[in-house]
Amino acid sequence: MFQLVFSRRFAMAHRLTAGASEKCAIPHGHNEIATVTLRATKPERLDGHANMVEPFARAKALWHRWIDDALDHALQLAETDPLLDWFAAREPHRLARILTTPGDPTTEILACCLMAKLNAFLADDGGRLACAAIRLEETPTNVVTFEGDPLEFLPLARLATPWWRRADMTINDFAPKPRLAAATA
Questions:
Q1: Which class for 26: exposed (0-12), middle (13-18), buried (19 or more C-beta within 10 A)?
Q2: Would you kindly state where each structural domain of the chain is located, as residue ranges?
Q3: pTM of this structure
Q4: N or C, which end of the chain is more exposed by having fewer CB within 10 Å?
Q5: Does residue 28 sit in helix, strand or coil?
Q6: Rounded to whole angstroms, what are the CA distances from 40 to 67, 73, 85, 140?
Q7: How many Cα atoms sit within 13 Å of 118 on the Cβ side?
């Protein structure tokens, strides 16, 4: 079976407060590389003409735009992190740039959230492709790879449709929902 694989690099900052090292409780950053593996949901024989599962430009356009516009240089915090209250009181205009996760924003939960978000984009685009695997390189020596259904591994969400299940440009559930514009390559 064919798989489409592509990567995107982004910068991020996060902090881990639920028992990680004290060093990780201070906001700090990483340059990450997300590599995704897509597969056809209904594999078919190549057509003898275009001979593509899906054009790469179409398969990755919205995903890359979301990473570039919403995820790159975002701050990742737990939904219960007190820094959220600080931003809400002092810099509410920056809330849309804060990615929130249930519990600490580890690479493991980020892999599940990102895979679920990509699957929401793909389903909204007709469902011809699905994400079979995601690889997040947090540092050159720390990598998380996930295969499977991310919704089976994510903690139960407080909302029926949290940000990672919506095919929109959001990275949290408290900012106004940006509207999707036409995807570009």
A1: exposed
A2: 3-165
A3: 0.91
A4: N
A5: strand
A6: 22, 31, 42, 30
A7: 32
In angstroms, rounded to a whole number, what is the distance separating the alpha carbons of residues 170 and 98? 10
Helix locations, 125-182, DSSP H: none
The amino acid sitting at 102 is P
DSSP conformational letter for 140: T
Amino acid at site 59 = A
Which pLDDT tens digits describe the chain residue by residue (185 residues)?
Answer: 889 999 999 999 999 999 767 888 999 999 999 999 999 999 989 889 989 889 889 999 999 999 999 999 999 999 999 999 999 999 999 999 999 999 999 999 999 999 999 999 999 999 999 999 999 999 999 999 999 999 999 998 888 899 999 999 999 998 555 555 554 44
Residue pointed to by tokens 């919205």: 62
SS3 71: helix
CATH number of 3-165: 3.30.479.10
Tokens describing residue 6: 């592509």
| Residue type at position 164 | W
